[in-house]
Amino acid sequence: MDVGFIGLGLMGRPMALNLIKAGHTVHVWSRRRASMQPLLEAGAGDCASAAELARRAPVTISMVADAPDVEQVTLGADGVADGASAGHIHIDMSTIAPAAAQSLAERLAARGVTALDAPVSGGEIGAINATLTIMAGGDVAAFERVRPLFEAMGRSATHIGAAGAGQVAKACNQIITGVGVAAVAEALNFAHKSGVDAAKVREALLGGFAYSRILENHGQRMLDRNFKPGFKAWMHQKDLRIVMDEAHRLGLALPSSAATAQMFNAMVGSGLGEDDSIAMLKLLERMSGSADE
Question: What is the CATH number of domain 2-162?
């Protein structure tokens, strides 16, 4: 397929590279030209704007930070809508609020563009290894049309429902992963403060009902003190802000999410925002007087 890709950061760059590896023709644009260079060297087409991407390819993808960025690259000056022809599909794989995804879909539809919200889970490793989990909302026929692109970037792609439904699924994912990271960090810090080998505690827990992928993967990274970002803490903070904003809108109690959101606020406020979200352990250690940077 012919596809344009916008947003070549920690996640977007390997995702676009995997599209090239799968044989798709990829055109790229980024606000930072340096971000484009690895893709250009891999054979991607060089575009001067998001509008030019849309003129060259019938499908465009955005992987950017938040809803204002998505709006700018799709509906702003020289955005996707300015270059799109009838039948164009735009896939936003960023994590934004469900209501924002619905609004963008409606406004893009008025410009003749079919929008899919298709956020992902799996972090940088999943993006590199093309093992992302993709959750999509929007027109099901458009979803099926672009399935080969999803298959090149991820291990699974599920159509959840109407516009915004993919973002609802991603919010659910971020609740579970955020609370899970906090729980594992609390448990390992508790073990350490109790004078017990945290590695052996983790080994024992992996054999019981406490087993989770977070305990297995992130728990080991916490023990190794590998806080290199695969998913930065400020990003998880942003995602849980979306969760809590939606909870307020719905009048919904999410007590565990609220407490975890405050922990991510504290991480960012104490200078840990650029670390991986598992640096929650470092925050807890500081709070308990057992910091081991």
Answer: 3.40.50.720
